[in-house]
Amino acid sequence: MKFSTLLKFTYFGITTVLFKRRKPILGSIILTDKCNLACRHCAVSNLTSAVYPYKQIKTEMQKLYAEGIRILLFYGGEPFLWGDNGVTLRDLVKEAKQLGFAIVNVVTNGTFTLDLPEADLILVSLDGEKEKHNEIRGDTYDLILANINKATSANICLYMAINQINKNDIEEVCETAMQTKNVRAVSFNFHTPYPGTEYLKLTREQKQICCDRIAELSGRGYPVLNLQSAFPYIVNNTFKTPCYQCVIMENEKQWICGRCLDIKGLCQECGFFFAAEYSLVFSGNLKVIFEMFKTYLKYI
To answer: Which pTM value belongs to this model?
Structure first.
């Protein structure tokens, strides 16, 4: 992260805390809900298989930038399936940078060629060691690792959603992050129980065990992007929701924090670590703030 970017984020954070503002800084755009996989824990893909047009996506980027968003994520479905008259995902990343977004990340299942050197991070879903990952996502583990090794930039962050199937594979994913070419870090979430996937959610006790394990591995030098100081709030779901500093857009509709707001009670079972981390940072939690600076400077 550039020092000038750090100063801008610092100013935003200080003024947000002091004046209790709800202005957002992180935005996500859903490019399509089309996906080439049928993962067991996913309830939001292939509902329409719509691929939203470039003109609409560009307008959404401009809108988010005008609102003060400076961290942008592209999501799907599978974002590498997006395209419109020759305009590709890589073109969108380049354009987002040209618009002025300071950090541009992409979240992908990793089954496509990872040619996005302009992205700050490519978050690639890897949900355990080979057996458990393939149980959740189909026979994709070897393909994903091959694509990571062939990536055109060392900007990969492994992205694991911890659930009842893979909860014992945290160390294996950390080890993969440590040993695999082009991987910079690993980031964890807990499964958020969208309707039809409730059987995969962890108990509070299981979340605590997982967070203790992540903290131990981080202490041993594994490149964990998550903030340990936020773990108690994540385990107990005691951080403020929704997080007003995060927004998401899909097909011209905008939500605060995430689409889970539309589902009664789901916000209170949020498993997204970054939502908790940002909520705590902009609530003025000094311990989380200092850890975020240190971690982001190291890995982003």
So the answer is: 0.93
